[in-house]
């Protein structure tokens, strides 16, 4: 049994790198795959490049994002999924490179029907100079390890059994950053957890450059901060549902910090949003703290700045 793997690659004006990605797919030791390229409206010669690869191998298929969908990688990923027929799904970025055993190393587990197959990777610079491989530890709780940043994953890291997405929302279209984090955490958060295997062996090169999301995430722009808040609020709620004090404390502190950092950078809409979502969550576990958060939060939003002393007091409430 050799399950069909759908490799889904959203792309936009990445001809400088897309050819390397395609070449790395073509030399996979495991041959039962299809590659779905979804063009997000490129204005360079992406179509001509992909047409060339399509002519070389019928397993490669080119699609243009329908005009009915808004632009963005998430809609392209979701559309690619709809166009795919594979038993397993691996979303892959258009500037990264698979090593030849990217798929074959996980074949035995695919044949067993494992739902989530995770591998390590090499972070590299734009010229593909290798850095040290990311080390992945075996995990008792997949969700918890990922939520607490103990398990480092990127979009390419996970090969999914298609069945796991039945009746599930895929990537959230409006989310600008952390889109794979939101999806992965939502899929991992279930009882019982998905069957999974972690292969602590680097199977792809993960390119990092100034135009990548990894670098953009280091900048405190409003869209990035909102996306981080969105995921953090979900995880605080999950921590409360599971009565997990470590998760609660971790994400409560993170959200309080983001409230004050948004004030510092004059991102008032983010401050208002996180306060409005955080107070009801905190009320579920500590009514008095929720009142204090609401009181100080409204004052600081009104005056347009925070207080280090009050921030410290609020953040360390559960210590």
From TrEMBL:
Residues 6-129 form the Glycosyltransferase 2-like domain. GO terms for molecular function: hexosyltransferase activity. InterPro entries: Glyco_trans_2-like, Nucleotide-diphossugar_trans. SUPFAM superfamilies: Nucleotide-diphospho-sugar transferases (SSF53448). It holds the Pfam family Glycos_transf_2. Keywords: Transferase. This is Glycosyltransferase involved in cell wall bisynthesis.
């Amino acid at each position: 049994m050799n399950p069909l793997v759908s490799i889904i690659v959203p792309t936009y004006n990445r001809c400088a790198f897309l050819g390397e990605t395609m070449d790395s797919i073509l030399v996979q030791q495991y041959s039962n795959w299809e590659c779905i390229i979804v063009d997000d409206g490129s204005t360079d010669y992406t179509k001509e490049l992909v047409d060339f690869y399509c002519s070389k191998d019928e397993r490669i298929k080119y699609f243009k994002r329908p005009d009915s969908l808004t632009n963005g990688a998430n809609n392209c990923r979701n559309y690619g999924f709809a166009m795919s027929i594979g038993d397993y799904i691996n979303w892959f970025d258009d500037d990264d490179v698979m090593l030849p055993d990217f798929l074959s190393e996980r074949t035995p587990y695919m044949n067993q029907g494992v739902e989530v197959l995770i591998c390590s990777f090499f972070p590299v610079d734009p010229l593909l100079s290798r850095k040290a491989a990311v080390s992945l530890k075996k995990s008792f709780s997949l969700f918890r390890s990922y939520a607490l940043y103990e398990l480092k994953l990127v979009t390419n890291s996970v090969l999914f059994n298609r069945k796991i997405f039945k009746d599930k929302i895929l990537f959230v279209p409006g989310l600008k950053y952390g889109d794979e984090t939101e999806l992965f955490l939502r899929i991992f958060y279930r009882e019982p957890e998905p069957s999974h295997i972690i292969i602590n062996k680097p199977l792809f090169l993960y390119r990092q450059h100034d135009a990548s999301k990894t670098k953009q995430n280091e900048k405190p722009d409003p869209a990035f901060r909102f996306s981080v808040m969105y995921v953090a609020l979900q995880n605080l709620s999950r921590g409360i549902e599971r009565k997990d004090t470590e998760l609660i404390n971790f994400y409560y502190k993170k959200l309080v910090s983001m409230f004050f950092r948004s004030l510092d950078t004059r991102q008032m809409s983010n401050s208002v949003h996180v306060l409005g979502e955080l107070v009801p969550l905190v009320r579920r576990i500590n009514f008095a703290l929720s009142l204090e958060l609401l009181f100080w939060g409204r004052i600081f939003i009104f005056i347009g700045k925070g207080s280090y002393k009050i921030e410290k007091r609020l953040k360390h409430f559960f210590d």
